[in-house]
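task queued by scheduler; priority normal; single chain, no ligands, no partner chains; default sampling; output format set to structure tokens
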Amino acid sequence: MRITGLALLLLSCYGVAQAAPPASLSICASPAQPIREQGYVPINGIEQWITVTGAACGNPVILFIHGGPGNALSPYADAIYAGWERHYTLVQWDQRGAGMTYAKQRPAEDVPLTVEQMRDDGIAVARHIEQHLGQQKVILMGSSWGSILGVHMAKARPDLFHAYIGTAQVVNARDNETGMYREVMALAQAAGDTATVDKLTALGAPPWRDPRNFGILRRFDRKYEGLATDPPPKHWWQPAPFYATPQALADAEAADDYSYIQFIGLRGDGMFAKVDLPALGTRFDLPVFFIMGEADLLTSPVIARTYFDSITAPAKDFTLVKRAGHDPNQAVLDAQWTVLRDKVAPLLKR
């Protein structure tokens, strides 16, 4: 059952479907009330898909900003973050051009996505969730593409967030892209992998005008990250039944294709080309925490560390995770939990 418009599908602690109250009122009758809901919410002119899961309304809220763009996390969230909902209320948001949001309102191919537009969407989602759950602030957690959006949101409205946690933190488009090419080439040369070296040589170093080149490099990147990391549990990436219908899977694939072109651009001139987070300023008015896989080739921990060292913030911490790369695995999840427990939780008590 799906309710659109201002209504969310709300499952009360008795499992009864109820209509949502006005967005300005909290649906939490008591701090102990559990919540599990999914549905469309009007955000900046379009209906966007949001899920909220938690054992108690009074728990701190985590707003996840998924990667991609286009790779919605909502189909996998229950499997990956099983158990977290006992201590936190978990909010997944399918961004403009991604997942269920894309499925309901497919933008035309010539309608561009912009970081600024999606930043404003994310801020509107955060405000909605705070009103909806009766919370003053939420914890902002972004990964990969979501780390770009997360920094933009944190810089624009630090008052909405307890802290920003960036995993697989992007810093600068050209630095990250060039660094990935250089590191993958070095690994292939050291391994005597002449086939990969020849293909990388044929690509040439970035920047590129051919949108396929980034995807080609990413395949080699995953190959070498896979040799130095532990894989995640297989069940993580099995979509929940609601998201596994033929139509939902087709919509998700189409969203990925649309968002990839928006990200890279037909001539290498997409959203990614303009990413330069240090140019936004290195002062943050909220605590900042980075979690980086030691073997991450796409978002180099060395580049992230240089950016991190330049940041001033009320509190900050950098975690380097062994046997982890760009994509999450159990070691990354454990590191996120440790940061939440040891670094963020004490801030919530002040």
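post-processing summary
- The first strand starts at residue 9 and ends at 11.
- The first helix runs from residue 77 to 80.
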